[in-house]
Amino acid sequence: MTPEDRLAALGLTLPTPPKPVATYVPYRIVGDMLYLSGQGPRQPNGGYSVGRLGKDATIEQGYADARTVGLLLIAVAKDALGDLSRVKGVVKLLGMVNAEPDFADHPKVINGCSDLFVEVFGEAGRHARSAVGMGSLPNRMTVEVEAILQIAPPA
Amino acid sequence: MTPEDRLAALGLTLPTPPKPVATYVPYRIVGDMLYLSGQGPRQPNGGYSVGRLGKDATIEQGYADARTVGLLLIAVAKDALGDLSRVKGVVKLLGMVNAEPDFADHPKVINGCSDLFVEVFGEAGRHARSAVGMGSLPNRMTVEVEAILQIAPPA
Amino acid sequence: MTPEDRLAALGLTLPTPPKPVATYVPYRIVGDMLYLSGQGPRQPNGGYSVGRLGKDATIEQGYADARTVGLLLIAVAKDALGDLSRVKGVVKLLGMVNAEPDFADHPKVINGCSDLFVEVFGEAGRHARSAVGMGSLPNRMTVEVEAILQIAPPA
Ligand SMILES: [Ca+2]
Q: Ranges for the Endoribonuclease L-PSP/chorismate mutase-like domain (chains A, B, C) (predicted)?
């Protein structure tokens, strides 16, 4: 079962990644490593899920938003690789939560992204990570995640 | 003198790393790189040293906590590698301090981890790093550090 | 046209990077990767541009400060490599903005660094990145950026 098959079995469709309107790019490949730019919980209308954990966004919302971010990261990987079977492993995530100073449950939020990676890539989707609280995030979005993946050459 | 010898000479015993109860893992190895998940100042009772620099935690406490984090990162590396002599170099730390907006002394806190790495690994322990202030951290802990190490294959 | 030529054409002179007075170093090389420690907007007098976006620093100031940080990162790369033509690509930036909780324009700030990298390195300067808001930064500086570059062996 390929990652694309698993996405279909989960009823998930890859979104179209936003095009950066600046001098950065959504990804860079170096040897067998794919570096993915940070992504946020982009909604079908092009806006972002906004809010702050511990204030006006629940852990459930944060978890769902982190899953949305994970799907966007996978969409960028698909653009980069053509074929998601080239993902040999998810190496490292930096999971960033927009949260109040006394918020303490960042891991429960970022699990939304981590869980999706394991659902789609199986054991290869298990990764090192940090799940931490930011002072603020672009567009006041709830969560942002950046990722490093190990990849195989094109078949 | 091996890193294990140096730990013994410093009177330090490696703690047992916590087992993640989720879809992430404490480390990932890719080629000659070891990526370590962020760790916090875990106490012998299983809890974490909590507080916020610039509010209710002193720089001395933060330094001690960062040293505790460093020892935990070394314990995870030992689990991953079997033999700490396989550490060829500490490449990069991201040192994250739970701090008030006007706190300015993050480097003095993260030095607790950086200093330990040099005590244990010698010159190979010197690393690139950033030492910065987070809006919040899991469990309200004082400090979290993630690391990338360069490693040799098993002997 | 070499990166050094482009710097000269832009009227830019590389600053002297600060020497870390601790157990970390400004950079580490592993294989074909150059890891650069986080740098801040150091001023000619040795101090830092301080302030908080959304409070007492404008986006224009933040952009200029991020450009100053970019020049310092390039100066460290020059120290590390001798010859900036050895930079094969800018792989990844973590752009960290000292900002109020409701600040939303982090990308506009970090573009100061990203734009400089493209001006100096051309297409090879385009990179993956995250541009996010910190709770605080060392010396209360406005912005800090760390970077990973892909490099070629010495000629
Ligand atoms: Ca790397």
A: 4-131
